[in-house]
Amino acid sequence: MSALEKFGVEIFTQHNIFERISADKPFRPENPAFIFIKSGTIKLRQHFSDLELSANMFMVTDPQTIYEMVSVSGDFQSRMVSYKREFISALSLKFNRLITYRYFRQQMNKGVPFPESEMEVVWKSVNFLKYILDSETEMLYKKEMVEHLFSVFCYQMAGIISKEDNYSMNQMSRQEEIVFVFLTDLAEHHLTERTVEFYAERQSITTRHLSSVVKSITGKSASQIIALIVMNEAKVLLNSSNKPVSEVSSILGFSDQYAFSHFFKKHLEVSPRQYRHQFES
Which domain of life is it from (predicted)? Predict the structure, then answer.
């Protein structure tokens, strides 16, 4: 049984992080996680932008997002704290909103650094938590120790994120807020709703206004982003399962396999079967 199943949290280093981050094809994390970079760089593609992380940066990954690794340097040194969502739900809603906001910032920008001194403290906390998780010594209250150490880590992160992002979150422009809500709605409804009209109605604004705002903030139109999200979902289903193309098209809400194949080929210039074959050979 993995530490994640047993204790609700698991820690990966640069030596085994690629068990959870696929190096050669798009992937969806099974659980949310914090990824910290001590040295070197890693570049990940998420949604519509590349995110480059270097020393003293961290990012928040989310199971609703599909990532693709672009590159990683030879001197890459990292820790990934992967946790079950329910393990963090007891913490304040404010913390969760800050995490969501940080995640939104990632979609827009490059990674944001935080002070080396703070990274040092967090790094030590994470390593100590890992030491307890990995210890084979019989510990009577190991589960409770893990829960408390994880709470300490969460409060450290809440402090760092609050200090850095609270002002920005309060200063979020109306345009940024529209995009923030659009991306949040899209993550929830993209399997059943693919029209710009649906997402505009959710915010009681016109499709023209939503498209204009999304384009000005992200550089891509709302319909392009919707197609990107659906394509990423399709890629993961095709390369991480043996489901027939007809079943994949059904999961993605297409009327039939032909409609899905037409959509896929339009955006990637290869058919779903040809795409899947690339990873089999």
Answer: Bacteria
88 or 43: whose pLDDT is higher?
Answer: 43
**Percent of the residues in the chain that have a pLDDT greater than 90, as a whole number:** 35
Residue 281 has pLDDT above 60, yes or no: no
- 137 and 213 inside one domain: no
Residue identified by tokens 């499709």 is 207
Q: How many domains does the chain have?
A: 2
- The whole domain housing 58 covers 5-107+114-160
Sign of the torsion formed by the C-alpha atoms of 205, 208, 212 and 215: positive
Residue 166 inside a domain? The answer is no
Q: Which residues lie across from 53 on neighbouring strands?
A: 42
> Is the separation of the CB atoms in 34 and 15 below 8 Å?
no
Report the helix count and the strand count for the chain, using DSSP H and E.
Answer: 12, 7
Q: Using alpha carbons, select from 185, 148, 3 the residue that is nearest to residue 81.
A: 3
What is the maximum span of the chain, computed from C-alpha positions, in angstroms?
Answer: 62
* Predicted local distance difference test score (pLDDT) of residue 106: 62
Identify the helix (H) or strand (E) that includes residue 79.
strand 77-83
87 C-beta neighbours (distance < 10 Å), count = 19
Assess if residue 281 is contained within a domain. no
